[in-house]
Amino acid sequence: MDRTDLKILAILQEDASIPVAEIAKRVNLSQTPCWRRIQKLEAAGVITGRVALLDPEAIGAGITVFVEVETGDHSAEWLARFADEVRAMPEVMEVYRMAGDVDYLLRIAVGSMTAFDDFYKRLIGAVPLKNVTSRFAMERVKSTTAYPLPEPAPRPAR
To answer: Of 1, 67, 84, 87, which has the highest C-beta tally within 10 A?
Structure first.
């Protein structure tokens, strides 16, 4: 990826609905080469999708809970079953396998304590777990979907 690709990615991470003509203008390209670069980045798997980001409060999912899971079973079979179960739970926004004393960290979005309790009961009933700890977010201080991009390589001196 060159400097122009990185600029395109930065623009798209901020607002993927910007027309290609506007992106092209911002990166000093004509529209067709800009569109080709975007298509190339998609084909290479750098751009994995384009989505609308929603306000969780507005859709009734304003409570964020981080759930730490410890398991006594680290077999491939247990992991496959656990992964299938959490993928099927719509409240689960993200799942990470962790290093350290916690095996998995889940980010959950729900609208009420009752909804979380229902989720919790389904989670502990789905697969054997050693320990589950829930931590409720009081305030979202920062939230972004934009990854930090590498600094472009300096242009060679002429």
So the answer is: 67
Q: pLDDT tens-digit profile of 120-151?
A: 999 999 999 999 999 999 999 999 999 999 98
How far apart (Å, rounded) are the C-alpha atoms in residues 64 and 91?
10
Question: Mind spelling out the 3-state secondary structure of the chain?
Answer: CCHHHHHHHHHHHHCCCCCHHHHHHHCCCCHHHHHHHHHHHHHCCCCCCCCCCCCCCCCCCCEEEEEEEECCCCCHHHHHHHHHHHHCCCCEEEEEECCCCCCEEEEEEECCHHHHHHHHHHHHHHCCCCEEEEEECCCCCCCCCCCCCCCCCCCCCC
What count of other Cβ atoms lies within 10 Å of the Cβ of residue 2?
10
The residues near 20 (Cβ < 8 Å, ≥ 6 apart) are: 31, 34, 35, 38
